[in-house]
Design goal:
By secondary structure, this protein is mainly α. Helices cover about 55% and strands about 5% of the residues. A two-stranded antiparallel sheet has the order 1-2. The two termini are about 20 Å apart. It holds the Pfam family DUF6691.
Length: about 170
């Protein structure tokens, strides 16, 4: 596992090719992961039915003419915050009994730049990573251009990561 030592020896910044801090050590057969496909399909159907993948709904959000998307995002933030609070408070474990660790993240100015770039791309294309796959699944073939752009952008970030403001 590759780590980069920061000025604070208590904090190890994980290198981009390092494994997840909560990666399971259990080994399962390949078909065991099909449950994630099922959850993804249900998640995609929910996105379609809730109109989260609608380019028009996303444009309404960025034009501040509708509360719909803000309601969805706000609900997700509240549910996520309550979930993290519950996990930390009860020291919850996975369904396999493995501990869940939630490391504190340090704020840096690169997050502002990244957020602005992400928001600009979202406003222009009408897609962010979650709904992107649901849009493709719903038959919006042109979204493949957005998917390829997202993959390229991720690669560019990884290539220039050490030179960017963090």
């Amino acid at each position: 596992m590759a780590t980069i030592q920061t000025q604070d020896p208590q904090i190890d910044v994980r290198h981009q090719d390092a494994m997840c801090t909560n990666e399971s050590q259990l080994k399962h057969p390949w078909w065991h992961n099909l449950k994630y496909t099922l959850v993804g399909i249900i998640f995609g159907i929910t996105f379609v039915k809730a109109e989260i993948i609608s380019w028009y709904r996303i444009q309404e959000m960025f034009q501040l003419t509708s509360f719909h998307m803000y309601g969805v995002i706000g609900t997700a933030v509240v549910v996520g915050a309550i979930s993290v609070f519950f996990i930390k408070k009860t020291r919850a474990k996975t369904i396999y009994g493995e501990p869940i660790t939630l490391d504190d993240k340090k704020f840096n100015k690169g997050q502002i730049f990244g957020g602005l770039i992400f928001g600009l791309g979202w406003a222009i294309t009408g897609a962010c990573p979650g709904p992107l796959y649901a849009q493709i699944g719903a038959g919006f073939g042109v979204v493949f251009v957005t998917l390829l752009s997202a993959i390229l952008g991720t690669w560019v970030y990884g290539y220039f990561r050490e030179k960017l403001p963090h």
